[in-house]
Predict the structure.
Amino acid sequence: MGWILLTVILLGQGLSSGVTASDSVCTELQGERIRWIVPSRAGGGYDRYSRLIQPFLEQRLKANIVIDNRPEAGGIVGAMAIRDAGPDARTLGVINASGLLAAAATRQVQVPDPSRDFTVLAKVVSNRMFVFTGRDSGFENIHDLVEHSTRNPVIAGIRDVGSASFLALPITASLIDLDFVTVTGYVGNTNRVLALIRGEIDLIIQNFDSVRPYVDSGELLPLLDVTGTGAGAAGPVTMLGGPSGLAAKTAMKNQRPVQEAVRKAAALSAIVSAGRLVVAPGKLPQPLGDCLQAQLMSMLTSEEFLNAASKAGLTIDAADAESALSNLEASRESLAEFNRLVQKQIEQVRK
Amino acid sequence: MDSAVLTAAYEGFAMVFSWPYIVYPLAGTLLAMIFSASPGLNSSSLMALAIPLTYPWEPLPVVLIFGAFLGGATFMGSITAILFNIPGKASNSVTLLDGYPLTQQGKAKTAIGAAAAASALGSTIGIIMLIVLIPFMREAAIALGPPEYLMLAIWGLTTLAALCGNSMIKGLAAAGLGLQLAFIGYDPRTAEPRFAAGIDYLGDGLSLVPVLLGLFALAEVIDLIVSKRITLSGKRTASELHGSVSEGIRSVFSHFFLFLRSSAIGTVIGAIPGIGSSVAGFIAYGHASQTARDNANFGHGDIRGVIAPEAANDAKDGGALIPTLALGIPGGSGTAIFLGVMMLHGLVPGREMLTGNLSLVFALLWSLFLSNWLTSLLGLSLVSPMARLSTIRTGRILPLILVLAAVGAIQYRGMVADLLCAVVFGVLGFLMKRYGWPRIPLVIAFTLAPLFEYNLHLTLQLQELGRIEFLSRPVVLILLALTGLNLALPPFLGRLRAIRSVSR
């Protein structure tokens, strides 16, 4: 009995000292200035999430968080700035994990590795990629678009080689037999959306939350849910993946292996939904990392924060660092199989 | 105009100018002025700080205070640009080109007076154009595309010819250098690094603020040290200073047509999302010098070089609200934060906002109007003490200028490397000034290059795919004609003057 009591006391002390240690480490940040790097322009999707998180996290850490928009090179420069900062949590930020995976697969230059070059603190939301068209485009559903492309290739607007959209486009198109050409160089979501509204292009492939206001206002029409969850879309939207998804139906129609189409659609979904991660530079001291992870998860799941997110029209789908990292590894494995398709697309753009 | 619009305009007016709501635009303006005049802070940081405070508020006070934040921060940065060659924000950077030379001539009061009047009146023109466009705002927001943006950039670049000073070759070489510097960084289409020499900082491209601070403010500091000038203005006492605020205000009315054209340029460019706040000012400045009969004084203290960019800069705010209100597409960082706040309070931009909530839209516009005028009026009250700074001995004022320039360079993006960049451009600017190489063509080319490059790529692709017909677009044709005039008129007028002088 005595040793059980002793064990309980020691365990209790250990736990309480752990909590105290973690809290005391987080107090290191009290009154400090934290630079929060956003890999998009002010007003972009990452910026909106960051500005939502900023006051809540400031309150919890009792620190001054200063938002620094670094949209250059599709956010790669911002990610590099986080990677290269000192491991003292005075620089934090959001990264587009799927964008970085895509960039790594498509660029000649070295880009930061989302799982190896950072200390992942939490996932804020998974990316939910959709194919969108403009409300005046004349396309009412994805079948109209595919049917039209049998006569004339449809025109897709993308940012540049190395974006998640650039990666998702040829893979999606190959699964649904969509003939397309790209117009590259639309920097920023807003420019792509405007191009779609103006009718210069027929489609964009984009994270739902980044363009949600334009869907809500009726300017954009979601045609295809590439990541397959369908949640949050305005009205019923065709899914790419799953046994009854468009990829499977297209394979069946053209007498291709259905299971392979379903598997490829799932692999694509894993890559592009890797999500928006809150990260610190790599090699962050573990107690500090633990404390930040705990504070972030507690904040991201709090009722007050979720209410504010809901008011701002932003979806939160928080996950802890461990789960986000395991998703990243799965995505990395899936990416290899699409390499040939993506390289072909790069050659076309760089011609 | 639609009677519904007039009714909403009156309702919006009544909302703003009623107790206690009038407090919000007044407080917002004062806060914006304080933030924009404080090193290390700006109106965007003020807006970000204010967001959580407004959570429990009703939509009307939020719209009023954020409208004032948007309008109240623009003019203050012009004062430091005029007095010390240090722009408070990138958008004020054009004002220094002629504002600071006026300070050197002892005419700081005139320059600030002209800037204040052009700023307040320019914002009014921008708001009026916005109101006129309300019934067809969506159409206005999507009327211009890559071909028009490309032609705007080309039109702006052709004004460079008028700014080359005595040597066209040197001016064009400086412009070429500006274009080359702007192409540093990732290719916007293929994402391949260009001219970055493996340096991470350059991968990002050069940023306008450190480049400008170097080329003008730091170059001036070096020049002041080398030239051993006693004060910035060359005068020792305030009584020796020339000019007055009223002279500056009058100058806006004596160049009223230029002021109107610059305001129109500002409104149109403001409506183009994400092209940088300084582009409107630079294009208006280039236009002013191009259309002036006697443009030799531009860059050396021409009051028109203050009026044009200030009018465009403030009119731009009205233009920036066109895509924001019509489509929810922000024109810049200020409108981006404003948009986020509106959505946080359940206000969705777009058709519903422009029909169901039109009086709230007008409350925003009245708040913007009020804050722009208040800022200019309060700014004018500071003119006399501020102008006296130009009579302080150089040895005493130089440390202040250096600190302001250093803080300005670092606070812009929080990067110490930007200070290093400013120093490099400071040396370059000093050498250019010393050896008679014009700096203005370099800066204008540097500012317009991204607009030109991005839209050249897009226009060529869209034309090749048959999605646009470049020469069948009316705005493109108008801009082509204006570009042709820009190129043909100066030699034509030069020849005409030569013939006249010979015939005399």
